[in-house]
Specification:
By secondary structure, this protein is of the alpha+beta class. It folds into two domains: 162 residues, Helix Hairpins, CATH 1.10.287; 161 residues, Glucose Permease (Domain IIA) (Distorted Sandwich). The chain contains six helices and twelve strands. The strands form two sheets. Strands 2, 3, 4, 5, 6, 7, 8, 9, 10 and 11 form a ten-stranded antiparallel β-sheet that branches. Helix 1 packs antiparallel against helix 5 and helix 2 packs antiparallel against helix 4.
Amino acid sequence: LGAEIAKFRELMKNTQNQRSDLEDTLEVNEKSIGEILKKIKQIQEDLGQSEDKLSSLTSEQNQLNKQKVIQQDHIIQQIRASHELGNQQYLKVVLNQEDPNQLARILTYYDYFNHARLEQIESYEATIAELDIIETKITAQVLSLNNQQMQLDEQKSGLLVVQAQKVLVLAALNEEISRTGDAIEKRESDRERLEALLERIVAGIANLPTSADAAPFSNMRGNLLLPAAGKIIRTFGARRSEGKLRWGGVLIKTDEGEPVHSIHYGRVVFSDWLRGYGLLLIINHGEGYMSLYGHNQVLFRETGDWVTAGELIANVGNSGGQRESGLYFEIRSAGKPSDPQLWCHARPVKAV
């Protein structure tokens, strides 16, 4: 697959000529947003794990402190009993016993008492040592949490800066399109670029192995879930505003940051930015079937990754110059668009 991935990258270079500086800036900007969001997600996951660990350590510390109090009480009782026995002088007690059986019982009791006292003291010392270790671990965990929170704050600050830059770039890009009046030409060019990419992908994956474990994609018609929860506002085959172009997939209107799921088992054959589609992910499902997910905010899977049905692969966004957030979704059969609504039905609820 490595050789095929290299071909895809080379294709990107060959198919992204004649772009304006604004489009180049938009690509860099939207990729940066995606990378920052991935870092934020990872830091938040790390923070959650660190908080769970700190909670576990604190709980362990509380238990040890309770155990310490109980052991202290036992030792105090042992000291009091020892004091009472001490007033009777061990040798005097032994010599005053005429009954051999009584003497044996007393000697056994003294041995038991001394052994129990020693065990209590050793157990108490072990608890103190454990508490020292736990306190050290808690201190280290608190420092780690603070560092992670600082990293999270830094990433969020950086995200705000890049997002503000994106707003300016999009405004300038839309102004440029309005001034030159080439909106239709741009759409057609974007579509041609996607078709060229898909042709190369179809040729490149011809010899790639597919899994025999998953149900064949062709058997899943009408039984799949759409990749994101939301309302379909653009349907397959509908005319696109002006010009002759028609929608080759569906546009699902949903909030930015909502999860995007793989519709079926497969392998990621493209995960990158493409003009007109923004952060785009394409999955090969075998038998000549592919699914496309465009305008994402962040991509969580890389080219070459295997994915399962329902797996989180991206978050909804508005990359590629979109004014509003939403997911563009296509299904391809032998390279040709197929109506997604014949294959998928709506997700009942938004995934958490």
